[in-house]
Amino acid sequence: MHYIREQDVEGDRIGPPNQRVIRHLVTPENMGSKYLWLGTSSVDPGFTSNAHAHEDQEEVFYCVQGRGRIRVDDEEMPLEPGATVFCPPKSVHQLINDGDEILKVVSAVAPPFIPEKYRRDHLLKD
After folding, report:
1. How far apart are CA 58 and CA 110, in angstroms?
2. Alpha-carbon distance 61 to 78, whole Å?
3. Residue 48 is part of a domain; what is its CATH number?
4. Which 8-state DSSP code applies to residue 58?
5. Which residue, 41, 22, 12, 25, is CA-closest to 125?
6. 126 assigned to some structural domain
7. How many Cβ atoms sit within 10 Å of the Cβ of residue 103?
8. Nearest-CA neighbor of 97 among 18, 10, 13?
9. pLDDT digits (tens, 9 = 90+) for 52-92
10. Domain count of the chain?
């Protein structure tokens, strides 16, 4: 069995204009998962994630904190605790925090991210 606590994971801190923190909870590297990646994204008030797509991965978002919106291709839906959104491969998606507190989602990705593609898709610098 593997065990991890979100608060013990530093995560990737991404600066403006897409200010957020992505914490990797279950990955092939830290847990040995073969078929999925699980993590959290916390978007600061007034910011968005960058609009991006994953070539080969499905992604599910589950909102646990805050209020905002998610854009998937040409559709936009509200996000609030309990809301769940499925994004098929190649769909362009973006988290939008137009609220006044952190917008936090749990995200599951299958198959798991390939590190180089993850860094490119999420605009991370080496």
Report:
1. 5
2. 12
3. 2.60.120.10
4. E
5. 12
6. no
7. 28
8. 18
9. 999 999 999 999 999 999 999 999 999 999 999 999 999 99
10. 1
70 assigned to some structural domain: yes
How many whole angstroms separate alpha carbon 57 and alpha carbon 74? 19
Residue 109's domain spans which residues? 6-121
The letter for the amino acid at 45 is P
Q: How far is residue 67's CA from residue 90's CA, in Å, rounded to a whole number? A: 25
Query: CB-hemisphere CA count at 13 Å for 49?
Result: 27
Pairing verdict, β 84-87 and 58-65: antiparallel
Is the overall model pTM greater than 0.85, yes or no?
Answer: yes
- Non-local (6+) Cβ contacts of 116 within 8 A are none
Q: What's the rounded Cα separation, in Å, for the pair 7 and 42?
A: 12
- 125 has a pLDDT exceeding 70: no
Separation between Cα atoms, residue 114 and residue 118, nearest integer Å: 6
Contact (Cβ atoms closer than 8 angstroms) between residue 23 and residue 39: yes
Contact 88, 53 (CB under 8 A): no
